Amino acid sequence: MIESEHMQWAVTPGAIGWIPAEIPHSAWVPVDARGEILYCNPAGTLLLPLLPCIRTASPFLQLLLQRVSERAQAGVHSPHLMHLEQVLVDELELATPALSQLSLPADTRAKQVAQLVLAGSGDVLSQPDLAKQAGLSVRTLSRLFMQQTGLTFSQWKQKARVLRSLEYLQRGTPVSQAALLVGYENVSAFIMVFRRFMGMTPGQFQSVVRC
Q1: Which residue spans of the chain are classified as CATH 1.10.10.60?
Q2: What are the Cα distances from residue 190, in Å, to 7, 28, 123, 182?
Q3: Which terminal CB of the chain, N or C, has fewer other CB atoms within 10 Å?
Q4: What is the largest CA-CA distance in the chain?
Q5: Which residues of the chain have pLDDT under 70?
Q6: What percent of the chain is helix, strand and coil (3-state, nearest 5)?
Q7: What are the pLDDT digits (tens) for 114-130?
Q8: What is the pLDDT of residue 180?
Q9: What is 106-210's CATH topology?
């Protein structure tokens, strides 16, 4: 899980994240997982986005990342490694944006509400209660989320729940229990929302994780 000032996303199996130089961010690993992290020379990444993002990593891109990481850790600095790094940049530039990222509102009051939802408090508080806590009307809260995240508050909250559920699903928690833990009493509704935002069912996601 990675969070910058205006975005939070989950680097799930088959995904690769990009964070430009000098972008403050935090990261944490809620489950037992492994991956590769590369620190790049900014001069070699000028074609990549100016803002953090997450992309779907093809099998080739995943192997390429692993090879570059192995050679960099071994201290092998050669023209071959430089070529591999350039191919990595080219592949990342062309990769498809992943679905597991969530924009955070820029307005401090709306962002306060967003943080409450991400922490799970939004499961027990209604939208009017959350708006009141932030000193906003329901109408203003809805407008801010739509303007600053591209999602209605309801859609944003649903996607936030889906991202929270990834932690439980990666731990092997049954889908029905994961749904309850993120505030869904109806498992079918959870599966439908999960598929809408992630492009697969929770069960399919767990199969990918196990692979």
Answers
A1: 106-210
A2: 23, 25, 14, 9
A3: C
A4: 59
A5: 76, 122, 211
A6: 55, 10, 35
A7: 988 988 876 778 899 99
A8: 93
A9: Arc Repressor Mutant, subunit A (1.10.10)
